[in-house]
Amino acid sequence: MSQPHVLLSVLILLVTSIGCRSTNRAESRDEDSASATNGGPVTEQNSDDSRSATETTRRAGSVAAPAGDVSVQLIQGSFHLYPKPAVRVNPSCDVHLALELATRNGKSTATLEHRVLGTCELYVKPDRRTLELTGTAGPCGVIQWTSGVSLQAGYGVEITDHRQASRGAGVDVTCADLPPALLVVDYRTPRGIMRWFSHDE
Fold first, then answer.
1. How remote is the C-alpha of 49 from its chain's centroid?
2. Global pTM value
3. More confident call, 173 vs 124
4. 117: burial class by Cβ within 10 Å (0-12, 13-18, 19+)?
């Protein structure tokens, strides 16, 4: 075969080879495009983006709600306490433990004093005491007020305050029970601990 014919054959082979490679590349791109359109395999970049979005969602869902502030505000007021709940008070001889809840100089306090009201000739030693309180929010909106116990005098108080409690229809079943009184007071004296109940009108 003459030299011109040899060169022509080589050129034809090169052109044919280049055309086949271009066709294969175009077919490969078409397959990738169809695969992505039909929900086929995800590219590495898309996979990274998906993992990043999933991680962000997981972190957002796992953030715990902030704990409630144990510092609560005292609702001030004056109350008559009795050894039994829902007692029938005798106005002519009303013997009770008076409780005053107040805020003094930014501190929550409870002042307790024995009193007698009416016309009966009965003497009760007042034994007035003012104790500083610390409040803690409990379940169902109940607030627990406690004081430290004086080691010298031996006085202390623990008040369960139901005045802001969630009650009635539509509340959690564990909060549905009605308390014996809005305030239940455990009063510690040198003679021991006695429970008192507010008279709720």
1. 34
2. 0.61
3. 124
4. middle
